[in-house]
Amino acid sequence: MNDSTRTNWWTRLSSGLKRTSSSLGGAIAGLVTKRKLDAETIEELEHELIRADLGPEFAGRIASAFAEGRFDKAIAPDDVKALLAGEIEKVLAPVAKPLEFTGKPFIVLVAGVNGSGKTTTIGKLAAKFRAERKSVMLVAGDTFRAAAIDQLKIWGERTGASVMAREPGADAAGLAFDALGAAKAQGVDVVLVDTAGRLQNRAELMSELEKMVRVMRKVEPSAPHAVLLVLDATVGQNALSQVDIFGKTAGVTGLVMTKLDGTARGGILVAIAARFGLPVHFIGVGEGVEDLQPFTARDFARAIVGLDS
Fold this sequence. Notes:
Number of helices: 12
Distance between the termini: 15 Å
Strand content: 5-15%
Order of helices and strands: HHHHHEHEHEHEHEHEHEEH
Radius of gyration: 21 Å
Number of strands: 8
Strand order of the largest sheet: 3-2-4-1-5-6-7-8
Largest sheet: 8 strands, mixed
Helix content: 40-55%
C-alpha cells in the first residue's frame, strides 16, 4: 500500500471498528478513571473483554498482565488501551498472512454460511485481482440459490471476470469440473468457486463439498489451492462453531471476516485467532470494494481499542 491508500484504509478500518472500540474504550475509561487498577477493577475489565467477544482465555491473560505489572496503581485509559493493543497484536501477528498464489490457475474454494457475505466477498476479491491485472473466473457453485448465481453474474460484468454458471439446482461438482477445464484451456490466473452455505444438514454439506473437491482434482490434482471461509463478525460466538464445522468439512486454509462495521463484537476475530491459529487473509468493514483489504495485526489491534495508527 502507498501512504495515501494506507491512510484511507486506516480511516475506513478505525471508523468501521468504531462500535467495538467505543464499547471497549468506554468500558476501560469508565473503570480506570474512577479508581485505581485494583483487583476489583481488573476483574471488571476481564468481564468487559469477554463481553466484547475477545474470549475468556485472552481476557484472563490480559487480567494477569495488568495484575503483575500495574497492580494498585493509578493508570490512564490510554495506557490500558496501549497494553491491550500490544497483547491483541501478539495474538494476531502469527495469523496475519497474505493469500499466496501457488498455481495457475490458482483455484480458491470459498465457503461460508448463507448471509455471511460469501458471494459479495468473491466479487470484491475478483475486483482486487482484476485491478492487479490478473484474469479471473467466477464459478457459481452455490447452485441452490438463484440469487447467488445472479449476484456472481453481476460481479462478473462489473469486474470483467468470466463467469461459469448453470441453472439453479444443477450439480455443483459437474459445474466445477467444467469450469476448471475451461480455466486451464484459457490460461486463467485465478478461479474463485462459490459453494452452498447451508448448515442445517451438515452431512449433506460435507458430502457436497467433498464431491466438489474430488471432481476438481480430476482436472487439477492440487486443487483447491486455498479454501477460504467467509465469516460474518456480527454473529459473535457463533463464528467459532462455524470455523470448527467448516474446518472439518472443507479443510479451511484461511479466513476472511466481513461486516466488522456492523457490530460491537469485533473482538471475536481475536478469539478465533487464539483458538484456531488459521491465517486471516482479508477483513471487511463496509459495502465497497475498497472496504475489503488484507489483514494487518497492528492496525487491527490499535483500531479495535480506539488508538490512533
